[in-house]
Write a structure and sequence with these properties.
The radius of gyration is 25 Å and the shape is globular. The chain contains 12 helices and 41 strands. Helix 2 (73-87) runs antiparallel to helix 12. The two termini are 39 Å apart. Strand 26 (345-351) and strand 27 (355-361) form a beta hairpin. 18% of the residues lie in helices and 35% in strands. The strands form 10 sheets. Strands 34-35-37-36-38-39-40-41 form an 8-stranded mixed beta sheet, with helices on both faces. A 5-stranded antiparallel beta sheet has the order 9-10-11-12-13, with no helix packed on it. Strands 5-6-7-8 form a 4-stranded antiparallel beta sheet, with no helix packed on it.
């Protein structure tokens, strides 16, 4: 394949402008018929990542991207700046699990590439911590997907995967010696349905999620039909037993939790990614009982310490209510409502022996309110405006660990005790940031979407920024799966502000910031609302004088990558540059991939005539028009991505390059040693962030400082 080159010129504004010579991309038309509609796919051949021709083409695209990026003056500055910030960032513990007087946690400790698994005795003094597993001592491409300690704290099981693949096997460590047991159980974790492990009461073995093996299912079902098995320590995995005896959906996503003594086991089974859940409880005698099904609209169940089950229900309460039922036997028809639906959206809760800590989402910012176990309000945890507060885990008694951050204040952990009612900072669990945002402010404004819906826009900028339409703006959004976009401290935002830019983050429909109705207003046949919201937010920033189209960039990933594809094809005149990470871009071929099938409950299926029409109408790949002046676009993907297949980025890049070969640059950066982003080494993240930020800064005429 002919090598690609780039001709560079300098615009009047001083930014490097690129006219790429893209590698040749043959059109090999494939025609599909959907409900009497014929659709031609010129780039179906780019879907096969194992094809040597596709790999050669991908490498040629990477050469084009590097030829554009490497000469940029911003790139070297950003690499040094981000390396300094990321590698000297404070340590931070997360994913806490308390058992039998011991606290297990993951620990991120830059400049180490990967987090490590540790255990300690007391959250107030982490000096006695012991490292149980350190991927960095083996290979920075190895990562811990999740872990689960036994009820007595003697063992911990962890799922390990490589190169960001999330294709994990279970390993077991004896916490007394730190030695690994010979037990290795394959296929407990995969990007389609995730994975989970929970120990039995006596720590003789563990229950785990298992994907089909060997000839159990045909090859096309290898990453579906997740089930629950039991592994007894010291025995071959081939002898493991299938335990639940329930017909889970093909697209089941199962999570396992137990009471702290390990006597009761709860299996939470999601039907794909659309927010439908069923629950199964195993009592100490081994009997399984179905607690709730999809129609019951239970979003979360938690096994309480008092012999009862607590749940977050959306039944006749789209903003959520907290209910309670007996644990043995569990009878949902006898549920008691403890906390009724209110103005805020209940998104989470934690149960202690005498308290309910309930996390409320208020349009993006969040707070934690407290109730007794009869549902009487007993106060609220202190929090600053436009911030995010959440309960990390329950300790002993009614004590909890509370995490809090804002756009301007770094993340910190606190211990909260009902005895004194005080939040006590735990500096050992999250170190001190060396950067601050004392010179910045956050303004929360409401944009108007196409149908008149008011959509929050959180604008982060340096104090005294003028609304003269000349500010470079990075607009970010997600809008899907009921996922809440909450305030968070970001080192990248600091770099962007230092370069004279503004960051704007939108709370789009499709998320859950205003409850399930807000989510449902942006999924399936109503997905276009999400794109209209983002376009409305962009127009708001222009109309209010924060920026202008020539200075407006947008960035998003995964489902947010679909958002990027939609706005660049629907309003190419409104944006100067787009950064699309691991994006979903061919909506007619999403469900042809294993994880794409799990997205059907959120996006819809081409097999349904109405849903096909909606998908085809907004599918970014199919909205590209020849000769259109599109924004500059940077596509980033990982070759090992099991969530969003890299072919989406390959096909979309090829289509845009063909549509306007002499237009603004269309770059494709494929990383051969990463996946969807989970498990990516710190050093790799620095390189990735420097690349896309240099691209965006260059296109918006910014100078990295």
């Amino acid at each position: 394949m002919a090598s690609a080159v780039i001709a560079l010129a300098v615009s009047a504004a001083g930014a490097v402008r690129a006219a790429p010579a893209y590698p040749p991309t043959p059109r090999k038309p494939v025609v599909d018929t959907y409900h009497n509609t014929q659709v031609t796919d010129d780039y179906r051949w780019l879907e096969d990542g194992s094809d040597p021709a596709v790999r050669e083409w991908s490498q040629a695209q990477l050469k084009v991207a590097r030829a554009y990026l490497d000469p940029l003056p911003q790139l070297g500055v950003l690499r040094r700046k981000l390396a300094d910030l990321y590698k000297t960032a404070p340590h931070r513990y997360y994913a806490f699990k308390q058992v039998n007087g011991a606290l297990f946690a993951m620990k991120s400790q830059p400049p180490r590439d990967q987090p490590v698994l540790v255990m300690m005795k007391d959250v107030s003094d982490a000096k006695d911590e012991r490292v149980l597993f350190d991927p960095n001592s083996r290979d920075s491409r190895l990562s811990i997907d999740f872990f689960s300690p036994s009820a007595d704290g003697r063992y911990v099981a962890l799922a390990l995967s490589e190169k960001g693949s999330e294709d994990g096997s279970a390993h077991v460590i004896d916490t007394r010696t730190g030695e690994a047991l010979p037990d290795v159980v394959p296929r407990v974790q995969y990007p389609t349905g995730g994975g989970s492990i929970a120990w039995d009461e006596q720590a003789t073995g563990f229950f785990y999620t298992r994907y089909p093996q060997g000839i159990e299912r045909p090859p096309e079902d290898a990453n579906f039909y997740q089930q629950v098995f039991f592994h007894k320590l010291g025995t071959p995995p081939a002898q493991d037993q299938y335990v639940i005896r329930k017909a889970f959906p093909r697209i089941a996503e199962t999570q396992l939790t137990t009471t702290r003594d390990g006597r009761f086991l709860l299996a939470t089974v999601a039907n794909g990614d659309g927010g439908e859940f069923a629950y199964y409880l195993r009592n100490p005698s081994g009997r399984w009982t179905q607690v709730a099904d999809h129609a019951d609209k239970i979003r979360t169940l938690e096994l309480g310490p008092d012999g009862r089950i607590y749940g977050l229900s959306l039944k006749d309460a789209p903003r959520g209510k907290i209910i309670s039922i007996a644990m043995d036997p569990p009878e949902l028809m006898k549920a008691v409502t403890l906390v009724p639906q209110g103005e805020g959206v209940i998104e989470s809760f934690e149960v202690t022996p005498s308290r309910l800590y309930v996390g409320y989402m208020v349009g993006g910012p969040s707070e934690v309110r407290m109730f007794d176990l009869q549902g009487e309000s007993v106060g609220m945890l202190p929090a600053e405006p436009v911030s995010s507060t959440m309960v990390g885990t329950r300790l002993e008694g009614d004590e909890v660990i509370v995490g809090s951050q804002s756009y301007l204040r770094p993340f910190a952990w606190y211990r909260y005790s009902t005895k004194d009612g005080q939040l006590v900072k735990l500096p050992d669990l999250a170190g001190t940031q060396k950067v601050n945002f004392d010179d910045a402010e956050v303004v929360r404004e409401m944009a108007t979407s196409k149908d008149g819906t008011k959509v929050p826009v959180n604008i982060i900028m340096r104090k005294g920024t003028k609304r003269d339409a000349n500010n470079p703006v990075m607009l970010y959004g997600y809008g899907g799966y009921g996922i809440n976009e909450r305030p968070g401290f970001s080192l990248r935002n600091r770099v962007w502000l230092d370069a004279g830019g503004i960051v704007a983050i939108v709370n789009l429909r499709g998320g859950g910031e205003f409850g399930e109705e807000w989510h449902l207003a942006g999924n399936l046949l109503r997905k276009q609302n999400v794109f209209d919201d983002m376009i409305g937010a962009a127009q708001h920033l222009v109309d209010r004088g924060y920026t202008k189209p020539a200075k407006l960039g947008a960035m998003g990933g995964s489902n947010g990558g679909l958002l990027m594809g939609a706005i660049l094809t629907q309003r190419p005149d409104l944006f100067r540059a787009i950064v699309c990470h691991v994006g979903v871009l061919d909506m007619l071929r999403v469900e042809s991939t294993p994880n794409g099938a799990f997205n059907v409950t959120e996006y819809g299926t081409v097999r349904n005539p109405q849903q096909f029409a909606a998908l085809y109408a907004y599918s970014p790949l199919h909205r590209v028009k020849d000769g259109t002046a599109y924004p500059a676009v940077y596509f980033a993907t990982g070759e090992n991505d099991g969530r969003v297949d890299p072919f989406h980025s390959r096909k979309m890049a090829a289509r845009l390059q063909a549509a306007n070969p002499n237009g603004r640059p269309i770059l494709l950066r494929i990383d051969m040693n990463t996946g969807h982003g989970i498990g990516t080494a710190l050093s790799t993240r620095i390189e990735q962030d420097a690349d896309w930020m240099a691209f965006l800064m260059n296109e918006l005429g910014m100078t990295a400082r």
